[in-house]
Amino acid sequence: MPQLGLLHWRAWTVLLGQLRRPPGAVCIRAVRSHSQVAEALFASQLKPDQEKSNFIIKTPKGTRDLSPQQMVVREKILDVVVSCFKRHGAKGLDTPAFELKEVLTEKYGEDCGLIYDLQDQGGELLSLRYDLTYPSSLTYLCEVPFARYLAMNKVKKMKRYHVGKVWRRESPTIVQGRYREFYQCDFDIAGQFDPMIPDAECLKIMCEILSGLQLGDFLIKVNDRRILDGIFTVCGVPESKFHAICSSVDKLDKMSWKDVRHEMVVKKGLAPEVADRIGDYVQCHGGISLVEQMFQDPVLSQNKQALEGLGDLKLLFEYLTLFGVAEKVSFDLSLARGLDYYTGVIYEAVLLQTPVHAEEEPLNVGSVAAGGRYDGLVGMFDPRGHKVPCVGLSIGVERIFSIVEQRMKIFGEKIRTTETQVFVATPQKNFLQERLKLIAELWDAGIKAELMYKNNPKLLPQLHYCENMGIPLVVIIGEQELKEGVIKLRSVASREEVAIKRENLVAEIQKRLS
């Protein structure tokens, strides 16, 4: 119960005034008195020097509104992504926007400070669904909720996609498309299958989506956590420093090897000669030939873990060649994804800096898609520890959207914000009833139609509206048309008009729109 002394004197005045009234009077004015009390309580919570006029209306930091034009662009992006997922046989899945806090924090470890916690409202500690995104890597929004779903429902095989919002509590970088609230699209394959077939399909999907979005040239970097661990082992990195050194290696796309080596030696206490040995490996990148080269390495080839990873990568490149996308994939030993639960192949797609158009400036948005194999995550949720192998990818919609937005501004592209196909107009007064009957007929036939919300609109503003909104057809009804049993059908682009019999109107419109 709140302390009574904290109520502002205006709130007390209203409450005491109600208590002095006869019971009937209090009941009669109950609604009004409740409103007064609420108003007084709100005013009492304001700081003494706070005035309503000082209140700034804005979106919270790291979030934004999307205009109708922006929503059209986002929907087109999502349509390309989801259509590709469905083409590959994925089922849709949704999970709650918030999870039990322990489900997220125990799996994200040291990065759980970036998770939004919710106040306890019903005996459960909850946190908003989260995406762990570093400047050099992009990971999933829904891996942990998906793993929880599989374990909870005892699902052993599933190919699914998930489109949804996630939240991360960190300083946003708006210019790079990094927000605190953002959309991502996930595709995952769960189940025990022959090696590298699902992994190759994930990379194929990534290529299809990035090509379909026409973002320009891109490259998918591929590595394997087992190869990384093998390199650290043969180079002499203490196992206790694996995670820290992995984090340093992952910065090589942003920092020079000299700076990364300095961080390893000075800040993380790695022996200089060990850092140098790591440098001989992690600065290498190439295709299948590099995989073969690593097989022949006299030191690395002695490590069982690394050999397993190299064997899988060789098979992966064979499948990628059959899929016709091997030239878009590079074996990059500097790719070192940060999350602990990746167990095998890891990959990350980056846009190359060459702009699509000469007028376009390079926009550094980091990775736009990423993923990998996480065979142990489901077992972390299963009471008996039963594992379900999983591999998947995530598309960074906000980062892609930032690129598309830039191009919209450069080229001044006009975007239709509605899908209206026909506008119902009249040049005369007192035809609202006829317009309503006509538009109902169009709607019932599945035609997207609009009319002006006025009893007696003038014809010219109606036609101007159609031109501004990009509506292709106008049907016009007036006294003459009503007498003759026809409707005028006007093409907005050519301004040509033709009289159509009323009973043939729907068929004629459908013919023109097909």
UniProtKB/TrEMBL annotation:
Name of one Pfam family that matches: HGTP_anticodon
InterPro entries: aa-tRNA-synth_II (IPR006195), aa-tRNA-synth_II/BPL/LPL (IPR045864), Anticodon-bd (IPR004154), Anticodon-bd_dom_sf (IPR036621), HisRS-like_core (IPR041715), HisRS/HisZ (IPR004516), HisRS_anticodon (IPR033656)
Taxonomy, superkingdom: Eukaryota
GO terms of molecular function: ligase activity
Keyword terms: Acetylation, Aminoacyl-tRNA synthetase, ATP-binding, Ligase, Nucleotide-binding, Protein biosynthesis
Enzyme Commission code: 6.1.1.21
Reactions performed catalytically: tRNA(His) + L-histidine + ATP = L-histidyl-tRNA(His) + AMP + diphosphate + H(+)
Residue intervals of the Aminoacyl-transfer RNA synthetases class-II family profile domain: 62-427
SUPFAM superfamilies on file: Class II aaRS ABD-related (SSF52954), Class II aaRS and biotin synthetases (SSF55681)
Family statement: Belongs to the class-II aminoacyl-tRNA synthetase family.
Protein known as: histidine--tRNA ligase
Taxonomic source organism: Odocoileus virginianus
